[in-house]
Structure formats: C-alpha cells, structure tokens
Amino acid sequence: MNIKQIRAFVTIARTLSFAEAANILHLSQPTLSLTIKNLEESLGGRLLSRTTRTIALTPEGDALLPIAKQLLAQWDNAQEEIHQRFSLKKGKIAIAAMPSFAASLLPEGLVNYHKKYPKIKIEVHDVLADTVVDMVRQGRLEIGISFDPGNSEDLSFKPLFKDRFIAVIPENHDLKDALQVSWRHLLKDDFITLQRPSSLRQLIEETLEKNDLTLSVAYDAHQLATVGRMVATGLGVAVVPALCEQQMREQGAHCLPVVEPMIERDIGIITRSRTQLSTAAVTMIDVLIRTFELKRGDR
Known about the structure:
Elements: H1 3-15, H2 18-25, H3 29-43, E1 48-50, E2 55-57, H4 59-86, E3 92-97, H5 99-102, H6 106-116, E4 121-126, H7 129-137, E5 143-147, E6 155-170, E7 181-182, H8 183-186, E8 191-194, H9 199-210, E9 217-221, H10 224-232, E10 238-241, H11 245-251, E11 253-259, E12 264-272, H12 279-298
Parallel strand pairs: 3-4, 3-5, 7-11, 8-9
Antiparallel strand pairs: 1-2, 5-12, 6-10, 6-11, 6-12
C-alpha cells in the first residue's frame, strides 16, 4: 500500500466515479483501475463493489476509508511542513557562541539573517568556547562559533576573522597610559586567567613557553567576566581575546595591546564534517560569512 493508491481510493470513495476520479487525479481510467486493483491485492480483498452503473464501498472499504483519509491528511501535512522548511518559511535553528562573540558581533549577523528569513526562529546558546565545540561535536546543535578547534576529523571550521589578544589591567595601573605592553612587563604583576582545561589558557601557556617566558598564575576563574572583575578590583592583570574588550571595560578594567609575543587566533564557524546541514543552517552560515566579509571591507 502506497500513498498514490491511498489517494486514488479516497478520491473514488468521494466521487463514486472512476471517470471523475481519474480526471481529478490526472490519470487515465485504465491506470486508475490498475492502481485500485493493486491496492486490493496488497490488502487481500475487494474495497469497491462495481457494476456497469454504480460504485459502492464494501464493508472493508468502508472501514478503510477513515483510516485512509487520516493517512492522507498526515502525508499532506508532512509534505507541507518539509516544503515550508526547505523554502525557509518555517523552522528553527540553534547556534552556540562564545559569550564575548554572542554579546558583541553575533547580533549583527542575526539581524541580517532575520531580514531575509523572518519566519525562522533562532536559539542562541552563549557558552564557553570549549563548550561550543562540545555541543557541536555531540550533535546538540548544527552551528558553533568559537576559536579554531584545530585538526579534527569530525569537525569542519570556516574562519571569519582573526582575534588578537589584549592585556587587561586595573584603571590605576602604572601602565595605564602606555600604548602597548610587553609580556615581560605584564608578568611582573599577579596574573589572572581561566581555569584548566581552558583552551585559551593552554594557548597562552604554549605561546609563552615557546618564547622562554614562564606564566605564574596567582588566580584563576571559570568565566572571563569574573577574570575582568578581579582585574578591575586590583587583584592582578590578565590577557584575553580582543572580543572581550567591551566586557572588560564594563567591568571597570583598562585594556591595551600586548606584544612580544603577540597572540592571535582564528574565530569562525564550527560544524560537524560528516553531517548534512539543514537549509536554515546552510543559509545562516552564508549570511554570517557575508556579514563579516562586509565588516572586513569597511576597515
């Protein structure tokens, strides 16, 4: 039993005419007759009682009719639902992004997407960079925006831009009026950073080790917002991605470039490499890429 046979049966049951049903279904009468015959054979008996002048449902046909109508309605609804999703007139998409990106740059991309596809609902998870990667890897959502996770067979990465790290110091620090600060000067103060196994902390430690510098951590925290507040209260200094600059300033800290060495890292879109993305996700990625291409062009 297939959907074409069900539709043919329901149409004949409604019209009680093979000629009229064939016209509605755009089929020849022989083709329609064969369709009903195949349906009856698959079910094991007659559904229609036919004479030269009349058509009537058998008791089995009468029992099948409400079930067939329900199946047909569900099929038509399913077709419409999927059509709406493919045409982006309906649907939902979930994105995970680092809080610093979610609060600063992501909204512009979402505005551009909403202008083109206003019927798509968007759910944003602002979580730690490492959690973004985990959520995508586990298939909990389709798109993540974070630092480059490095070589990984199960993940794909499309870079959007490079983010340089900046120094964060208290407002009353001696280096407040400096144009930039070197790591050697910065590490004379108590250093505040994220707790292990943060990829941000790992990048800082590896970069300093390559440059014969030793990172001695006085305080660590789980969230960059906490790091910023600890710096602002005078507990020490920190280095964070430039994406966090506004957040650090709102916490009451002062920001300036850090050099010797300068640290930068790609930020981009993370997806699962072996998974087919939904139409909504594909178009979201396209809009985000175009948004940041335009921003780079403005610089």
